[in-house]
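go over this chain:
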Amino acid sequence: MNAKHTSWSDGKYNAAGTRLKNWMEDRNLQVRNPFMLTHEATRTTHSSTTIDLVISELDKAISVRAMHITTVDHRALCIATRIRWRLTRDGALRYDKADWNQIRTEITLMKEEDSHPRSVQSQLTAIIVKHTPRAKPNARAFWNKELEIERKELMKAWRTNPLDPELTAKKKMFRKHIAEAKMESNARYLQEETHPEYFRSAKPRATKHPIPTLERSDGKIAAEHQHIAEELHSALYQGESCRHPRGLEPPKESLNTGNLDVALQNFPNGTSTGPDHIPTRMIREFRRRRERLFMATMNQAWTQGIPSSWKSSSTILIPKLNKPAYTIAKSWRPIQLQSILAKVLERAVVDRIARFDILPDNMYRGRKRFCTMDAIQKLNDIVMNNPKGHTCFTALDIEGEFNHLDLEKTCQTLSAKDNNLAGWIWNWGCNRHTGYRFNGRTSRSFATDRGTPQGSPLFPILFLISFVGLVSIPPRSDNSSRTSILTYVDDFLVATTYKDKAHGQAEYQDTIDRLAKGALDLGYRFAPSKAEHIFIKTPLSESFEPKLDGSVTKTQNTMRWLGYQITEDWKWDSHVKLWIAKANESARRLRALTERYKTGRLNAWTTWRLINGLIIPQLTYGIETWGKIGLIKEAQTTLN
């Protein structure tokens, strides 16, 4: 909001601005920079002068139209106001600019007596918010091509002759153009001052993935922010909440310190924070400086269940690739940003579940030594162990896996191993709330009592546990064919090796039908449009067409599974060439960044770190499987 007035008092500071600040603070209005003058005024000219102010609530900002403040000499100071800008939310916290010395000091001074998880979380949030600056929203929204060209010309003139007398005039003109561009940019953000949703048409311009409208199930169009959030929630979390299983009790024994230390040590630094704004670095400082309080907090969250504040999250939306229209709710992938305190505890629980050996060897992820490379190596073993036979693969994908997970059945499976652990899982999964963050705003909280949060460390292993009974297939007595099911969370692959087409097709189709029926019983569904089929080293006369839900799956020459390009001849040339092309594109963009910031912003050490983090992993992806001398030399040539 900009407040303009023409009456000023003499003196060094803006006394009228001070009175304005006091008047607004009496009415619970926030004021920023009460002494900042956009341009200076004089008593003789009475030119209009602007003070930058901030009003945090829209209804208060709209009600403040004209403010009459009585001055010392009882003259009425009338200030005509015009709303120019409103922050719908605070800017993001800049953790790289935080005062970590003060943060460490205040962590050391935290009270030892109060170890309740909710209280510790609120204390940590207050500390990090107090000592961390916020980013300015849309700080460079005013910048345009003309200003960039003028800046380059000014820098070129300064390098050529720093003592040029015309350089000062050019600097003043450049600053003037910047001020004008800022005023024009602010004016564009206001279309209707009195409309309660006036910011809706402006803020999405600064959002990476805006959602202007959504088609509702009744055929109407949802355009308001709250209506879009309601449509997203109804489409993503369909069905009724799960019932509470009987006989479950909370854990009674304490957590092992080593499990928490390993979980915290392996937790990535760049993880996005939840609504509590507590980053991973702060939790590590908390663990290092207040070990007893940290362990008491985590054990209380383990034995009594995590509090409701640890269950709240913010859901961001990422557009799915290759969708025909993004006006449908299911074209967006929701990612819940949870509290990192809860996620550290969840990682320790994952290690505890993995020790029970519930999952068979053909289910990957959710535990150590069962990663992507192991799954592809298993595929390689299936093909290589069948040199004279035929092999076919079918890739299947489940729709809506995270929001259809039945916690009741999963907890019943876990209760056979550890009843207390199953009770904690149920307490963790119920009474959760999330708000949808898009278009620069966050909606109200919605209850998500069905499924599990996508992005939670617990989701992969809980999802795999729900499918344990469907992925085990006994071998045939005549050894005419053998079918295996590999699953990497929600990515399924059915592999069949056979010598006779009739036996192979029959067993293969029975496996597909049994898997699809079992998924429906659990509340899931395989998407027929995403199913792909490929034959490995198989002539056309021995191939067949499998069906999924009555529709024939597509037979491909190449199939992508877990980032690997599988071909009919079972060679890795196409896979290596694809990732070499990706590495070349990454190198091209990195080279452009290096040339752009040759003033020292992107130094040699930073460039080498980017090469190690981006280009080399692309060139060596899956080298354990395709590591042949010729292909390695080709990748090495690209790297050089």
Observations:
- Residues 1-13, 32-89, 190-207 have pLDDT under 50 and may be disordered.
- The radius of gyration is 31 Å.
- The first strand starts at residue 2 and ends at 5.
